[in-house]
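Page 42, continued from yesterday. The earlier attempt failed because a stray header line got pasted into the input along with the sequence. Redoing it now with the clean sequence only.
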Amino acid sequence: MDVQYNDGFTTAVISVDGPVRFTHQTAEAKDGKPFRVIVDVLSATHELGSKNFYELPNCPIKSI
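This time it went through. Structure tokens are written below.
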């Protein structure tokens, strides 16, 4: 997972090895939570080791 912020745009890259299926959607801001982009990578296992990422670039993304 790589997140970068350049020229007013945030990009998130999810790298995978092998074939995967995925879905994506957006969620409106509600209940004090911001707008969200949801990517569900199906039939895959991750090796991220953590569910919290603390070294995000200075950008609109606040958590992953």
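Notes: The first strand starts at residue 2 and ends at 6.
Reminder to self: strip header lines before submitting.
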